[in-house]
Design a protein that fits this description.
Elements: E1 6-10, E2 13-16, H1 18-21, E3 37-40, E4 49-52, E5 61-66, E6 69-72, H2 74-77, E7 88-94, E8 103-108, E9 126-127, E10 129-135, E11 138-141, E12 153-154, E13 156-162, E14 171-176, E15 182-186, E16 193-201, E17 211-216, E18 221-225, E19 240-245, E20 250-256, E21 262-265, E22 274-279, E23 286-292, E24 297-302, E25 307-312, E26 324-327
Antiparallel strand pairs: 1-2, 3-4, 4-5, 5-6, 7-8, 8-10, 9-12, 10-11, 13-14, 14-15, 15-26, 16-19, 16-23, 17-18, 17-20, 20-21, 22-23, 24-25
């Protein structure tokens, strides 16, 4: 059935504008299955785009936001053809190798049997996909398409994303059909500089919906959103992560708080600790934004109640076949 885009009209009223906005069906005018979804700024131009996973035989679909109207850029982005023979579920756009560009990981698993199975023991099993971002909404299949040195074939469904081991890169937890969960620990993301931000209210709640505009000294700008609800049947790390490649300083961070108030926080030098507070609106009146980054340094950040310590490890930025190390009872070693 067609996608739905419910736009807030105010006063508790929403209207479905998907057809008028150009994101109800794909560029061929065809409605697709719709499994997982991530609404995020994929081309880093300051607005939210959509990526939706679908059934086998339908490419996953990328809708880029062009001033409130959406264009199906699936073919041009490089995300279409690699997904055609798989059924996609969980999905997340993150900078997995900290090179300053968003990548995408897609959890796959069939709902109909494969005539030529990827795994003779599981006719529904499919490999997952890791595609490397090359900038401006374009992607290439990584040297290891599944993101692991030893190929993993399974029936993945949910995929949750976050920095599980607090080392400055994004890890993945996969929920498998009729099998134990898999934990993919990122082993390459810490090879570039990075920053993580936690944006929270005075009661300790994450400021869901707040957006961050992160500016470097050379003019490079990153856009991120505080979000947990994306992918498929998953709740994700609320911390905002950004890969900085070789940059060792953030010039400025501009936060748009829930309710629309904007506030800027100044230069963040290497290995510094910053806790900034700002005024929100409505029931949330006080926010904090904290930053931590490396490489090779330890820093603390304050969440309003207690201190935490993280270690940032830095190496050269490169994508290696052993992008993720799998751990857990079902993982191939």
């Amino acid at each position: 059935m067609p996608n739905q885009l419910w736009m807030n009209q105010g006063g508790g009223v929403f209207k479905n504008r998907a057809l008028l906005a150009g994101c109800a069906v794909n560029s061929r005018g065809t409605a697709e299955a719709g499994m997982g979804v991530h609404a995020t700024d994929i081309d880093q131009d300051g607005d939210l785009d959509f990526f939706i996973t679908h059934l086998r035989g339908e490419t996953n679909t990328l809708f880029l936001n062009e001033g409130g109207m959406f264009d199906d850029m699936t073919a041009r982005s490089g995300l279409g053809l690699p997904s055609l023979k798989y059924t996609g579920w969980g999905v997340g756009f993150h900078d997995f190798n900290n090179d300053g560009m968003l990548d995408v990981y897609i959890a796959n698993g069939a709902v109909g049997r494969h005539e030529t199975p990827f795994d003779p023991g599981d006719l529904y099993a499919e490999p997952n996909l890791l595609l490397r971002g090359t900038g401006k909404g374009r992607f290439d299949v990584s040297p290891s398409p599944e993101g692991v040195a030893t190929r993993l074939i399974g029936s993945s469904r949910a995929a949750a994303f976050g920095d599980i081991d607090n080392d400055g890169d994004i890890d993945i937890v996969l929920v498998e059909q009729n099998a134990p969960a898999r934990v993919l620990r990122n082993t390459v993301g810490s090879r570039g500089h990075w920053a993580e931000f936690r944006v929270r209210g005075s009661q300790g709640r994450d400021a869901i919906g707040a957006t961050l505009k992160i500016m470097l000294a050379d003019g490079t700008t990153f856009y991120r959103q505080v979000e947990t609800a994306y992918s498929f049947s998953s709740s994700n790390d609320a911390r905002v992560h950004v890969g900085l490649a070789a940059a060792d300083q953030i010039k400025r961070v501009e936060v748009t708080w829930p309710g629309g108030t904007r506030e800027q926080f100044g230069r963040l030098p290497p290995a510094s600790l910053r806790t900034c507070t700002g005024q929100g609106q409505r029931s949330v009146t006080r926010f904090g934004i904290t930053a931590l980054r490396g490489p090779g340094r330890t820093a603390e950040f304050h969440d309003g109640a207690r201190f935490h310590t993280m270690l940032a490890c830095g190496y050269s930025t490169s994508f290696q076949p052993s992008a993720f190390c799998c751990s857990g009872p079902c993982c191939v070693r």
